[in-house]
Amino acid sequence: MLLLLDTHLLVWAMGSPDRLPHGLASMLEDPRNTPLFSVASLWELVIKQSLDRPDFNVQPAMLRRALLDGGWQELPIKAAHAFAVAQLPPLHRDPFDRLLLAQAGSEGALLITADQQLGQYPGPVRLMFP
After folding, report:
1. Are 113 and 7 in contact (CB under 8 A)?
2. At residue 7, what are phi and psi to the nearest 5 degrees?
3. For the whole model, what pTM was predicted?
4. How far apart are CA 38 and CA 53, in angstroms?
5. Domain chopping of the chain, boundaries
6. Could you give the CA distance from residue 82 to residue 84 in angstroms, rounded to a whole number?
7. Are the CB atoms for 98 and 88 separated by under 8 Å?
8. What is the CATH number assigned to the segment(s) 2-127?
9. pLDDT single digits (tens) 15-71
């Protein structure tokens, strides 16, 4: 199964795996599953980094390298993903989360999130709590 993590869980997976929802680490380690990360998440992190927030300490380029070195597959943003966003009901306003959901649907992946709003969408999304 293709597993796509939302940005928040992606950062935890690489920097604080002990904070991941129960069962997610074993899903990511299962050889039958393929963990994915989206370029949309990297884009979101670059924007947050540029805001110089004192509570934000993620280096997107280093995160990407660690993910690739760890066997994760990078999911680029395609036009089909952007167009699929238009088909989503307006349950959530975050453009990055909406794009991640559209990518999951387009690519046959399961989006895993801890965001209750995002978890309200039908389709390939699983809400998991830390």
Report:
1. no
2. -60, -45
3. 0.95
4. 23
5. 2-127
6. 5
7. yes
8. 3.40.50.1010
9. 999 999 999 999 999 999 999 999 999 999 999 999 988 888 899 999 999 999 999
